[in-house]
Amino acid sequence: MESFVAILQIREFAEISIIDIAERANINRSTFYAHFLDKEDLLQQLVDEKLDTLTEVLTTSSGQGMYIPSPSEPDPLLLALFEHVFAHAAFYRVLLHRNLPGQLRAKWTDAIRDGFFCRISSLGLGQKLEVPLELLLDFIAFSTSGIIGKWLEDNCAYSPHHMALQVTRIAGFGLYPSMGIHR
User: Fold this and answer.
1) Which of 114, 127, 154, 174 is 20 to 30 A from residue 48's alpha carbon, by CA?
2) What is the pLDDT averaged over residues 108-123?
3) For residues 150 and 154, what is the distance between their CA atoms, to the nearest angstrom?
4) What is the DSSP string of 96-164?
5) Is 26 helix (H, G, I), strand (E, B) or coil?
6) CB 133 within 8 A of CB 153
7) What is the 8-class DSSP label of residue 166?
């Protein structure tokens, strides 16, 4: 899987052959076929493995009790997300910046969305929401996915802690106060 990610960083999915993958992994084709049906199966298993791990990380982080927003400490859920992405940066760069078959980016966004749904559900805030839950989750998932994509594109110029803290501040202060607009 690591060899496949390495190749995907420099070549498009359609250009990669099983021979390329096997040679890079220093295995023969029969070993490859003992584990995967084809390169699409390898890609699917790779994505499933990483997103399952991400889901576990987010679920664990979202259920850590009541979170009180702070401008000096990152949200534990965001920190766990940024740390996970940083630890698997090569994979997420490929996932978010390469033209891969299937709805893989949608699965990534759904995993983030589900993590925040678990957070909201664990806090029991369903009846207190100021906006419809579906809209709130979409906003969180797409904005978080977008900022992570840009962070990866910039080669993780800031630490996961710094990024999680900045996104926590935007969420805590609100969009307009973060821009300097106050009532």
Assistant:
1) 154
2) 90
3) 6
4) HHS--SSSHHHHHHHHHHHHHHHHHHHHT-GGG-SS-HHHHHHHHHHHHHHHHHHHHHTTS-S-HHHHH
5) coil
6) no
7) H
